[in-house]
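Ticket 4471: requesting a sanity check on a complex prediction with MF3. Repro inputs:
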Amino acid sequence: MKPATNSLPRNSPCWCGSGKKFKKCHLGKDPIHSLSMNEKPIFSEKRIYIKTEEQIEGIRKSGQLTKKLLDMVEDRIGEGVTTNDLDNWVHTETLANGAIPAPLNYGHGQGKRRMPFPKSICTSPNDVICHGIPNNQALRNGDILNVDITCILDGYYGDASRMFIIGDVPEDTKKLVEVTHECLKLGIKQVFPSKRLGDIGHAIQKHAENNGFSVVRDFAGHGVGIEFHEAPQILHFGQPGKGEMLRENMVFTIEPMINMGSYECRILGDGWTAVTADGSLSAQWEHTLLVTKSGAEILTA
Ligand code: MF3
Ligand code: CO
Ligand code: CO
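Returned structure tokens:
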């Protein structure tokens, strides 16, 4: 997910990793620089790609590989497995399929203050909201874990994540994981040409808050496919009828991060790992979606 630029303080380091202050870097700008790759741009002032049939077919294939890799994780994950094991398995299998893991070295050349992402997947356990870095810690009974996989196949990006429950967890933990999955599905139901981004955010926020949970503000879903993080940002909260209008052949992620406690987060010293400020549990599910005449096609299902 891309840090949500409407909530980043002006003086904090820019989300792009340049090392510059946000206000001197991407504030008021969007992150797309290769509009030349877009054969059929609309909303060109906002740089939202409307994908061509050829691009959609490419993203579809990449999305299917991402799904296959998550299925492999689902088959092998369990108590005693380390997040480095998951990283190694996905890395090897991605290359075996002729693809590249997008997170590996992501952020390189965008400034020196933060290291490029050092692994091939993100693994975010328990109170980690997103961008957790795989390590040698074994998973234990009672853990919950988000595994987020993005692969680049023939230049096209597919991005998805799932939650995994290790052994037995308390009822309220199970509920957090399930409600977050429902939030993603409710967001997807809003995807329809002429609907607006605020409709997606509102559906997610309402369901999360009705269940006593909070929606993370500092990270958002994003356009995806030709680049890792394209415009627009997809906020997981908002007002119905507000925001950018959805058009056929837009491709973006919805990836709600829902906390059991407050939505505030902080970034650890590694420059990547986002954790809940109050130490409460956090869950996330993600799909890559294509807007079609008849609603969403889930490219990573
Ligand atoms: N896959 C994440 C997303 O959903 C982004 C990970 S960026 C990384 O957008 F550098 F941390 F890998
Ligand atoms: Co994403
Ligand atoms: Co992702």
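Notes from triage: The two ends are 18 Å apart (CA to CA). Leaving this open until the requester confirms.
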